[in-house]
User: Fold these one by one.
Assistant:
Number 1:
Amino acid sequence: AQTIHQWPVAEIKAVGSPLSLGCTIKGKSSPNLYWYWQATGGTLQQLFYSITVGQVESVVQLNLSASRPKDDQFILSTEKLLLSHSGFYLCAWSLRDRDEQYFGPGTRLTVL
Amino acid sequence: SQLAEENPWALSVHEGESVTVNCSYKTSITALQWYRQKSGEGPAQLILIRSNEREKRNGRLRATLDTSSQSSSLSITATRCEDTAVYFCATDGGGRALIFGTGTTVSVSP
């Protein structure tokens, strides 16, 4: 069975500090991977997607970057956090484009 | 403006009643998906309906798609308290990015 793990579960960070969020998918080879951001009570905004190791496409620019260093790992990062980065970050995977996406449990980020 | 939008914004029903959430979208699509997100969790897909399908069922769930009016509906029959969640429609817009709507909060009370 496939599992998706996100870390950390929650973070409280200062404005201007760096950030690194991680996502690991087990039990599925070469999945499409996605990062989403969700403001409290808001919709989900797709940030990045990756169809293979080393290749990441940006969907929305939010002063964030993403990398896929391994087939089963997706990293979201920034060198300087903004207040507007607060929210719920979700990682997801799918077999192919436009397929059902399977979401992880999310990371709650609070920037103060 | 939103490329996908659900209505109404919120619904309240009692257990056993039926509920319908509507979605309107603004782009051509290859498929439309319905997701449910419970508080503090990631979304979970309920139904995927392709552009050449008019109706899809999954247990107590029924989705319809009308590409001419660019609209979809999700109906839940015999609701249960555990159906309480935010319901999103999501379209592909013909590309790789999945575009989620604004969500409808459904509350089911005993």
Note: DSSP finds no helices and eleven strands in chain B.
Number 2:
Amino acid sequence: AQTVTQSQPEMSVQEAETVTLSCTYDTSENNYYLFWYKQPPSRQMILVIRQEAYKQQNATENRFSVNFQKAAKSFSLKISDSQLGDTAMYFCAFKVVNDMRFGAGTRLTVKP
Amino acid sequence: SAVISQKPSRDICQRGTSLTIQCQVDSQVTMMFWYRQQPGQSLTLIATANQGSEATYESGFVIDKFPISRPNLTFSTLTVSNMSPEDSSIYLCSVEWLAGETQYFGPGTRLLVL
């Protein structure tokens, strides 16, 4: 069975600085997707970034980038130039076909 | 970009009653799913809503408690039946336009059962 582990329940960062959220997963599959979702207090789950396992190049979306290490089964999220609006719960997710698993989440607080 | 809406956005219900949550997408989707997020927890998949047939439920969830309908490719409902305080959660629908790829979520329904 696939499992997703986020080992940092809470993190904080000063505005304009950089923070990295960790995620590891366990699977025997070779083809899968990895995601980071953001859930602000409004509770809507918002897709931040997506990585296909077959792609070696790390995905980037503006200030958000990932460090995907397939052999190590690691998928960390780096947020650059942190903004107050980045304050939210961040969930790492693993997906193979229709089986999607979420980590426990990391609560990120951006401080002014 | 497509819009996923849920109704109601929140509700407070008495134990023993039922609530039906609607999920509407403004374009046809391949897959629709229902998740539960208990307070302070991560997301747990309840079921996959299948168009024109019975939903596929995950372990621990049963049709009598969480009946689901999906009459077409843009709409689904989840009913939480015979509610108890333990059913107090956020319920989220999600969709895939291409099967097996990215899931996009609705805004969620916050349910409190007294």
Note: Chain A touches chain B through 19 residues (CB under 8 Å).
